[in-house]
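To: structure desk
From: M.T.
Subject: fold request, one chain
Message: Could you run this one when you get a chance? Sequence is below, nothing fancy, just the single chain.
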Amino acid sequence: MSDARQPGRKPVILVVEDQPDERFLAATLLEDTGFTVIEAETADRALSILNDRGDEVSVVFSDVRTPGPIGGFELARIIGVTWPKVRVLLTSGDAGDQPSDLRVSATFIPKPWRAEDILAWVQEAAGHPPTAGGPEVIGPGGKVQQQA
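Reply: Done. Structure tokens follow.
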């Protein structure tokens, strides 16, 4: 079994976003920084990709609201159980989506996100195993805030 975390290999980031412009922006930002990016429009498609290539993926960066029966919060829960080494970063521009809705170890960042915040988090996450703590939120100035 291959491991994307081996030295010399580019970390693989799975970007899950149904809005083509936002998905392109995130994918381009990550690719330009040296990551390998796989794109998916739905959480269902992301799960299919993870079933085929879960041993390669280091991070899933997903919108909370995705078309279909599975949303970002449920996707994060499934990933946490099935692929515990994969880190999850969720984002949403909907004020109704709150970090308190996270029930698994994941990180939440509100839209519009800043490129620097995403890159810093993904770079750390791609190189380190998940923490044992609870959900996190990236707050003002890119500071990580632990959620109770």
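Reply (cont.): Residues 1-5, 128-132 have pLDDT under 50 and may be disordered. Let me know if you need anything else for the meeting.
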